[in-house]
Amino acid sequence: MQNTFREEFYIPKLEKMTIKLYFIVVWITVLINLFIVQGTMQAVFADDAFLGTTLDSCIQTLSDENQWDLTTKKIRGIITADDDLYLCTELVGALRDDRIPSVLALVGKISYLTRNFSLNRQRDFSDNFVAITLVRIGESAIYPLLEVRSKGRGSIFFQGSELYFRYALPKESAYAIIDDYIEDNKEVFKAEQVENLNDLKTRLANKYKIENDQLTPLSQKTRNHPLYLERRLLISENLSVLGEDEKVFHATKKLGVLRAVEAVRPLVPLLLLKPETVVNNEINERFDTIKDYPAAIALAQIGIPSIWGLLEEIAANDHDDTYLEVAYKTMTVILPGVAIPGFVNETIKKQKDKVAQLRLYKLYPLMGLPIPE
Fold it and tell me: 65 and 197, same structural domain?
């Protein structure tokens, strides 16, 4: 038995070398796989880290100058769709977050571009993803952009700010806001600052001739983000109960806080609906003129899309003077009064129905303008 045992487990020298080589190959394979798995894990965790990102952490990322130092990308100011910086920027726009830190951070980096050649759009538009994000955010970017523009920047910054005004406002409204801003600051502005802002008007005159562009769609990763999905769910839930008497005011308030563009169309018919008790207990001065109308407050929070929605509603249906007055006040809460005629006139141009145009002309006295004959 002993001999048999030895013979059974006896390994010649050549066979020993073969087995050693075999084990070496196995270990190398294992190490390679470990590196691959580790890389995959890091990629997964990096993805999970973004998916778990809070809005506050995204705003912090955008506000951190170091995050925008893209020297590792070889070309400063070029962002790729895989960068967390890009995803945080896009998420802030998707959630329509208009808090000052994120707005100021994005305004300061409006010249940063992205390269995504798969989109069949004009490159100058689809590349300016920061400008596109600010368009999604809305009117809170207007005056920070004008302040930066007045100080003068390079042509790339000019391009980004022009794109913002072109897609956020009608041309007439953009001109009026710029002129009003110059007038308000004439005591402190130097001649060069006024020249820079007038140059913006000149450049916009050419930009507004280009039509039929659309905002670049949100990436799939942003659409899958928990915060975006939660927002969509909350909007859907609150829209579904707008018609229920006992829930309408709570839903209205929530949709305003969410700045839900989807809520504009169902809210504009509810503009004059008043609660029996006070719903908005914490009304700041901004909403003082419309404090009795929860739907008006919600529309004012939603911003520029509400102006278009209110004008479409006025054009489509007969409303009394009270509705027109509250609608106009709501618009002026969103933007200064000088900007509203541009929206009204642009809406009138799009109306083929003369009756619809006449309904919109009723807003002229509220704007301090004579009704055209």
Answer: yes
